[in-house]
Amino acid sequence: MIVSKYKNVKTTDADYTLNTVYTVLRVTFGLVPIVAGLDKFTNLLTRWEDYLNPVILNIIPVSGQTFMKIVGIIEIIAGIIVLVKPSTGAYIVMAWLICIALNLITSGKFFDVAVRDLVMAIAAFSLGKIAQFEASRNSQMQTA
Protein backbone atom coordinates (compact mmCIF):
# COMPACT_ATOMS: atom_id res chain seq x y z
CA MET A 1 0.00 0.00 0.00
CA ILE A 2 1.17 3.51 -0.82
CA VAL A 3 0.23 6.58 1.16
CA SER A 4 -2.19 8.86 -0.69
CA LYS A 5 -2.21 12.63 -0.68
CA TYR A 6 -5.88 12.39 0.34
CA LYS A 7 -6.86 11.49 3.91
CA ASN A 8 -8.47 8.09 4.42
CA VAL A 9 -7.78 7.02 0.83
CA LYS A 10 -5.68 3.94 0.20
CA THR A 11 -3.61 3.99 -2.97
CA THR A 12 -2.88 0.70 -4.70
CA ASP A 13 0.12 -0.25 -6.77
CA ALA A 14 -2.09 0.13 -9.85
CA ASP A 15 -2.93 3.71 -8.82
CA TYR A 16 0.76 4.44 -8.33
CA THR A 17 1.64 2.95 -11.73
CA LEU A 18 -1.12 4.88 -13.49
CA ASN A 19 -0.02 8.11 -11.81
CA THR A 20 3.59 7.46 -12.85
CA VAL A 21 2.58 6.92 -16.48
CA TYR A 22 0.39 10.03 -16.34
CA THR A 23 3.22 12.14 -14.93
CA VAL A 24 5.78 10.91 -17.47
CA LEU A 25 3.42 11.56 -20.40
CA ARG A 26 2.39 14.95 -19.05
CA VAL A 27 5.96 16.14 -18.60
CA THR A 28 7.03 14.69 -21.96
CA PHE A 29 4.16 16.19 -23.96
CA GLY A 30 4.55 19.45 -22.06
CA LEU A 31 8.28 19.93 -22.43
CA VAL A 32 8.95 18.45 -25.88
CA PRO A 33 6.63 20.89 -27.71
CA ILE A 34 8.14 23.77 -25.74
CA VAL A 35 11.69 22.73 -26.66
CA ALA A 36 10.74 22.08 -30.31
CA GLY A 37 8.91 25.42 -30.41
CA LEU A 38 11.90 27.28 -29.03
CA ASP A 39 14.14 25.54 -31.55
CA LYS A 40 12.06 26.98 -34.40
CA PHE A 41 13.88 30.22 -33.55
CA THR A 42 17.40 28.73 -33.47
CA ASN A 43 17.36 25.67 -35.76
CA LEU A 44 19.84 23.91 -33.48
CA LEU A 45 18.06 20.54 -33.68
CA THR A 46 17.34 20.68 -37.41
CA ARG A 47 16.47 23.05 -40.24
CA TRP A 48 12.71 23.00 -39.68
CA GLU A 49 11.75 24.58 -43.02
CA ASP A 50 12.99 21.41 -44.76
CA TYR A 51 9.95 19.59 -43.36
CA LEU A 52 7.42 21.95 -44.92
CA ASN A 53 5.41 20.67 -47.83
CA PRO A 54 6.35 22.76 -50.91
CA VAL A 55 2.64 23.26 -51.66
CA ILE A 56 2.24 25.00 -48.30
CA LEU A 57 5.23 27.21 -49.04
CA ASN A 58 3.46 28.36 -52.22
CA ILE A 59 0.22 29.12 -50.35
CA ILE A 60 1.41 30.95 -47.24
CA PRO A 61 2.08 34.69 -47.51
CA VAL A 62 5.30 34.51 -45.45
CA SER A 63 8.67 32.84 -45.77
CA GLY A 64 9.20 29.31 -44.54
CA GLN A 65 11.37 30.61 -41.72
CA THR A 66 8.69 33.06 -40.55
CA PHE A 67 6.03 30.36 -40.80
CA MET A 68 8.11 28.01 -38.67
CA LYS A 69 8.50 30.72 -36.02
CA ILE A 70 4.70 31.00 -35.90
CA VAL A 71 4.58 27.20 -35.60
CA GLY A 72 7.10 27.48 -32.76
CA ILE A 73 4.88 29.89 -30.84
CA ILE A 74 1.90 27.55 -31.26
CA GLU A 75 3.99 24.60 -30.04
CA ILE A 76 5.16 26.51 -26.97
CA ILE A 77 1.57 27.43 -26.10
CA ALA A 78 0.43 23.82 -26.65
CA GLY A 79 3.17 22.55 -24.34
CA ILE A 80 2.20 25.00 -21.63
CA ILE A 81 -1.45 23.95 -21.92
CA VAL A 82 -0.41 20.30 -21.49
CA LEU A 83 1.46 21.18 -18.31
CA VAL A 84 -1.37 23.30 -16.89
CA LYS A 85 -4.45 21.40 -18.15
CA PRO A 86 -3.39 18.07 -19.64
CA SER A 87 -6.96 16.89 -20.19
CA THR A 88 -7.24 19.61 -22.87
CA GLY A 89 -3.63 20.11 -23.94
CA ALA A 90 -3.07 16.46 -24.76
CA TYR A 91 -5.77 16.57 -27.44
CA ILE A 92 -4.34 19.80 -28.88
CA VAL A 93 -0.91 18.18 -29.16
CA MET A 94 -2.48 15.04 -30.64
CA ALA A 95 -4.23 17.07 -33.36
CA TRP A 96 -1.05 19.06 -33.99
CA LEU A 97 1.00 15.88 -34.44
CA ILE A 98 -1.57 14.48 -36.87
CA CYS A 99 -1.39 17.71 -38.90
CA ILE A 100 2.41 17.49 -38.98
CA ALA A 101 2.23 13.85 -40.13
CA LEU A 102 -0.28 14.75 -42.87
CA ASN A 103 2.02 17.56 -44.02
CA LEU A 104 4.91 15.12 -44.27
CA ILE A 105 2.89 12.38 -45.99
CA THR A 106 1.48 14.76 -48.60
CA SER A 107 4.96 16.10 -49.31
CA GLY A 108 6.06 12.58 -50.26
CA LYS A 109 9.07 12.74 -47.94
CA PHE A 110 9.98 11.96 -44.35
CA PHE A 111 7.56 9.03 -44.03
CA ASP A 112 9.57 7.74 -41.07
CA VAL A 113 9.01 10.99 -39.21
CA ALA A 114 5.32 10.95 -40.14
CA VAL A 115 4.92 7.47 -38.67
CA ARG A 116 6.74 8.56 -35.51
CA ASP A 117 4.48 11.59 -35.19
CA LEU A 118 1.36 9.42 -35.58
CA VAL A 119 2.61 7.11 -32.83
CA MET A 120 3.26 10.16 -30.66
CA ALA A 121 -0.29 11.35 -31.43
CA ILE A 122 -1.61 8.05 -30.09
CA ALA A 123 0.45 8.54 -26.94
CA ALA A 124 -0.91 12.09 -26.59
CA PHE A 125 -4.43 10.71 -26.94
CA SER A 126 -3.61 8.23 -24.18
CA LEU A 127 -2.43 11.09 -21.98
CA GLY A 128 -5.72 12.89 -22.61
CA LYS A 129 -7.75 9.86 -21.56
CA ILE A 130 -5.64 9.29 -18.43
CA ALA A 131 -5.83 13.00 -17.57
CA GLN A 132 -9.62 12.93 -17.82
CA PHE A 133 -9.72 9.86 -15.59
CA GLU A 134 -7.34 11.45 -13.06
CA ALA A 135 -9.35 14.68 -12.98
CA SER A 136 -12.58 12.75 -12.43
CA ARG A 137 -11.04 10.59 -9.73
CA ASN A 138 -9.45 13.58 -7.96
CA SER A 139 -12.73 15.48 -7.89
CA GLN A 140 -14.50 12.42 -6.45
CA MET A 141 -11.83 12.01 -3.78
CA GLN A 142 -11.99 15.65 -2.76
CA THR A 143 -15.75 15.48 -2.26
CA ALA A 144 -15.47 12.26 -0.25
Briefly summarize what is shown:
With 144 residues, the protein is mainly α.
Helix and strand string, N-terminal first? EEHHHHH
The rounded distance between the terminal residues' Cα atoms is 20 Å
Q: What is the count of distinct domains?
A: 1
Nearest-angstrom radius of gyration?
A: 18 Å
Percent of residues in helices comes to: over 70%
* Shape annotation: elongated
Physical arrangement of strands within the biggest beta sheet: 1-2
DSSP strand content = under 5%
According to DSSP, the number of beta strands is 2
Provide the residue-averaged pLDDT.
91
**Helix count, per DSSP?**
5
Q: The biggest beta sheet, please?
A: 2 strands, antiparallel
Poorly predicted runs of 5 or more residues: none
What structural class should be given to the helix and strand makeup?
mainly alpha
Task: Show the helix and strand layout.
Layout: E1 2-3, E2 10-11, H1 13-39, H2 54-59, H3 64-84, H4 86-107, H5 111-143
Question: Can you give a write-up of this model?
Answer:
This protein is mainly α. It has one domain. Helix content is about 75%, strand content about 5%. The protein is built from five helices and two strands, in the order ββααααα. The chain has helices spanning about 15-40, 55-60, 65-85, 85-105, 110-144; strands spanning about 1-5, 10. The chain has a two-stranded antiparallel ribbon with strand order 1-2. Helix 3 runs antiparallel to helix 4 and helix 4 runs antiparallel to helix 5. The longest helix has about 35 residues, at about 110-144. The mean pLDDT is about 90.
